[in-house]
Structures are given as C-alpha cells and as structure tokens.
Amino acid sequence: MGWEQELGEADRMWRTYIEMAKHLGSHLQQHLQRECNLSAADFEVLVRLTESERREMPVAEVAAATQWEKSRLSHQLTRMAQRGLVERVDSNDRRYPDVRLTDKGYAAINKAVPEHIEMVHALFVDVLGPERLAGFAQACADVLRALDEHRERDCSL
Amino acid sequence: MGWEQELGEADRMWRTYIEMAKHLGSHLQQHLQRECNLSAADFEVLVRLTESERREMPVAEVAAATQWEKSRLSHQLTRMAQRGLVERVDSNDRRYPDVRLTDKGYAAINKAVPEHIEMVHALFVDVLGPERLAGFAQACADVLRALDEHRERDCSL
DNA sequence: GTGTTCAGATTGATGTATCAACCCGGCCAC
DNA sequence: GTGGCCGGGTTGATACATCAATCTGAACAC
C-alpha cells in the first residue's frame, strides 16, 4: 500500500477535525432526537420558520435559507406535515405554496432551542473560551471563502 | 419570538463553524461521488481495509475502526459486495466472517485517496497554514475531550 | 452428547438524502 | 382564447442511517 503510512502532521490534524465534527454533530443530534423527538433536519426547518413573524413563509424562502435541494425540502415537509409540526398553506400564487408552523411545531422548537444552545455552549463555546473561539471562527470563515472561490473556478470551466 | 434576535457573538461564530463543516463536507463528498463513484461511507470502509496488509480483516475490526454500529456496517458491506468493491470471506471461526478488498475496490480506493488528500490540502490545510492549523487541531482535540467527559457523566447517572 | 448461553452478524422496518423525471400554474406569443 | 414555455414543486427510485428483532455458531455446564 504505502501512502497511508506517509500521513504527515497536517493529515493527522485533519483527522482530528473530522473526528471532532463527527462526534460533536452526532452528540447534538442524538440529544435533539432523544429529548425533543426532532431530527436535525426537523430542527433546521423549524428554526427557519421561527424567523418569520407570522410563523409562515414560502417554501422557496425556506429552501434559500437552508440551502437545501427543493426535493429534499419537499420530502421533509411532507413528513413533518404528517407529524403535525407544519402545514402546507395555499398562497396567492398557487404555484408557490407556503409552509406554516403549527402550534405543536412551535412548542417543539421552543423547547428544543434553549437546550440546544446550552449544549453548544457547554461543549464548544465555553471549551474554547472567547479568544480561541474567535480564532476558530476566523479559520472557518477563511475555509468557507476558499470553498467559494474553488466553486467559482469549477463553474467557470 | 425573541430568542433568535439575541444571538450573541459566540452563537454567530458557532453558525460559521456549522456552515463551514456543512459546505466542506458536502464538497468533498460530491467530489468523491462524481469523480470516483464512491460515497463517503464506501470511502471510509475502503480506507480501513487498505490498512490491512492482506486487504482483508474481520468485520468486527472494521466496525471498531469506523466506530459504526454493526448493523450499519453489515448493510453497507452488503451493498458494497453487490457492486463488487468487497467480498465476504469465511474465516476459521465462522461466527466472525472477514471482509476482503476486491481488485475493483483496490483500484477505486487508489484512485480516490490521492485526489481526496489533494482537495483536503487545497481547501483546508493550505488555507490555514501550519500555525493556525495546529491551533485549530488543538481546539478540536479540546472539544473532543470535553465530549468524552460529558459522555462519561451521562453514563454514570 | 445435549442444552444453554452469549457475542457478533444479519435482517426488516422506518426515516432520511439525492437524483431524475414529471407535474402544474402563470406567462407570453400569436 | 389557444398553445407552448418556464420555473418552482412534487413524486419515485435508490442509497444510506438507525433501531429493534432475529439468527448463528462456538463455548460452557452438566
């Protein structure tokens, strides 16, 4: 084989990051699932809906906010509607229906968010402290920028 | 609503991290899928198998290395076997079968790994530079440790 | 040997993610 | 109006993740 023996310092640090991301993500996800009976996907959609005053917005707006594919969102909304977390509402232009947060969905997200934030602080924010957190976030922002540039290059081929 | 307006500095930094993790992960995943026709799960299993001299190891060993549930691994191996990437082999103790990398799987992973590493360097390692990378990795390690401690506390209830 | 037990492996059911194909209502040309 | 276009939305098929239930064969007691 060969190559896997030649992992340098940098590659081991990459693996540390991957490990951290995997564990942190699954921990938060499991907490949401067990305590609030919400998947990460449910949580994301519900959070976006609370960002509207009327607990209701066009499907396209949710899609833009979450950056999900339209089909993924459609399937997700179907399942969430079946569980009574949201409901589909016809708007003026019947091509572009709205989604509304039900009372049940509202209750669920209002229970979930504070717990989630608390856990994020305990496991991430407070662990790093303000200074290292800022450095960490800056690093993330830089990687994001590099990603955007890379994508631009790919599209302009 | 209320709470979502009160997002502090720290929470916005957390969101930056989430965004970065999401985009970086899906970018790497899509590259693997498009260029090598491998899912992230395929990639992980294949990498573990190359870590054995004989391209073959007990299922349980793969499970330990990936930290996957046995059932997830079993399903994954079934699908990979159907595509000819691996094959199941009976070992001495027929309770604990082995998995072997086929030639096709070997070819696939040997194409994928260098491309993957190159992309990780371009999008992550080189973007941060050695110094910030080290700090970043240290931060990840600290978060991992906090996670472990947290889990310990949960189990000892 | 026969029966019990046990750990690891498999299977089935359900929820989720992604791609391709299709639907459908407003829009424009004519 | 009638017909074709267009873009967002939905649906279907397949792959993946997770949980619960089941299977399997070695090991141990007797």
Summarize, please.
Helices cover 72% and strands 7% of the residues of chain A. Chain A is globular. By secondary structure, chain A is mostly helical.
Structural write-up:
By secondary structure, chain A is mainly alpha-helical. In chain A, about 70% of the residues lie in helices and about 5% in strands. The first copy, chain A, is built from five helices and three strands; from the N terminus they run ααβααββα. A three-stranded antiparallel sheet of chain A has the order 1-3-2. In chain A, a hairpin with an 8-residue loop joins strand 2 and strand 3. In chain A, helix 1 (about 10-35) runs antiparallel to helix 5 (about 105-155). The mean pLDDT of chain A is about 90. At the A-B interface, helix 1 and helix 5 of A face helix 1 and helix 5 of B. Chain B binds a DNA duplex (30 and 30 nucleotides) through helix 3 and helix 4.
Layout of helices and strands:
The structure is a homodimer of 157-residue chains.
Chain A: H1 9-36, H2 40-50, E1 56-58, H3 59-66, H4 70-82, E2 86-89, E3 98-101, H5 103-155
Antiparallel strand pairs in A: 1-3, 2-3
Helix pairs in contact in A: 1-5, 2-5
Chain B binds a DNA duplex (30 and 30 nucleotides) through residues 33, 39, 41, 59-60, 63, 68-76, 78-79, 93-97.
Round the Cα radius of gyration of chain A to an integer and report it.
20 Å
Give the helix proportion of chain A (percent range): over 70%
Give the biggest sheet of chain A.
3 strands, antiparallel
The main sheet of chain A orders its strands as: 1-3-2
Largest interface: A-B, 48 and 49 residues
SSE order of chain A, one letter for each helix or strand: HHEHHEEH
The helix-and-strand class of chain A reads mainly alpha
